[in-house]
Write a structure and sequence with these properties.
- With about 90 residues, the protein is α+β, with helices and mostly antiparallel strands.
- The protein has one domain.
- The protein is built from three helices and six strands; from the N terminus they run βββααβββα.
- The longest helix has 13 residues.
Length: about 90
Amino acid sequence: MYLHLGGDMAVNQKSIIGIFNLETATISKITRDYLKRAQKRGIVENIGYEIPTSFVVCSDRRGDKVYTTQISSQTLYNRTRTRRMAF
């Protein structure tokens, strides 16, 4: 299954390491440092033009990636829990 992050971006749910609220997660210095290092490495991708409210950390065989999105972390999490009914 894929998780839609906004815009035209979707990621494989198996690659997701974590979904984080940007405001509360960045209280921690460790998280702020992680995001700074990710930005320097060029692995942060902003989804959309709005101010981001959450970020999703993914890892697969191609490497790590951090996506920032205006969709709330709770909404993203709820989307991972939704199961599609087969007809």
